[in-house]
Amino acid sequence: MARGRPRADEVGARREAMLDAALELLIADGPDELTVSGVAERAGASKATVYTWFGGLEGLVSAVVEREADASAEAVKAALGGRSTVRDTLEAYCRGLLGLLTGPRSVAMNRAAMTSAELARVLLAGGRHRVGPLVEDYLAGAAADGELRIDDIGNAYRLLYGLTVRDAQIRVLLGEPAPDADQIRATAAEAVDVFLGVYALR
Questions:
Q1: 19-45 exposure pattern, b = at least 16 Cβ within 10 A, e = fewer
Q2: For residue 8, what are the contacts with CB-CB under 8 A and spacing of at least 6?
Q3: Mind listing the pLDDT tens digit for each residue in 46-93?
Q4: Coil, strand or helix: which one is 200?
């Protein structure tokens, strides 16, 4: 008896398996070694299915980037959506930001984006250009509530980002070890100290 078409949840699980396989291979081997054949084999799928669902390697990696961007945006929303003080909220965001950008997933995707203008566009759209407005909205709300004094929200966000990331991301991309949890906490605390020194009400 014919089994018929797979259920939607089965299709979703198979798609996730392909995205997982692509990300794992990107982290392990880098973008130059990533192939449709390798992803299909690791995911237990056929090359034809990968091409049918994603159109090819670039479409597959774009889907990985978009999925990771969704997860990142949700994490930022969670960090900014609590009832903590401005300091605690910003430190939580900065810890998450630095951990994300120097972590293996982000490093793998950034290296892939360096090989393709389209992937770079997808990464920017799903990353900085998507998350930035979330943080700017939080800062604007804190300013409206009288907790911060900010004339230019965009400049304030860029300062916070720069104080947090510094040169850490590029150094990890060039092969240095990622900062550990203690270093991330210390950097986030220092970044927020400086940021509040500029924007906190006195």
A1: bebbbbbbeeeebeebebebbbebbeb
A2: none
A3: 999 999 999 999 999 999 999 999 999 999 999 998 889 999 999 999
A4: strand
pLDDT in tens, 11-37: 889 999 999 999 999 999 999 999 999
Determine how many CB atoms are found less than 10 A away from the CB of residue 83: 6
Q: What is the largest CA-CA distance in the chain?
A: 76
Amino acid, single-letter form, for residue 15: R
Report the alpha-carbon distance of residue 147 to residue 170 in Å, rounded.
33
**Within its chain, how far is the Cα of 42 from the centroid?**
24
Tokens of 68: 């990771």
> Alpha-carbon distance 18 to 64, whole Å?
9
Q: Which residue has the tokens 């396989």?
A: 21
CA distances from 100 to 27, 56, 62, 145 (A): 14, 27, 18, 29
Contact indicator for 87, 153 with CB cutoff of 8 Å? no
Distance CA 75, CA 95 (A): 11
* Domains assigned to the chain: 8-199 (1.10.357.10)
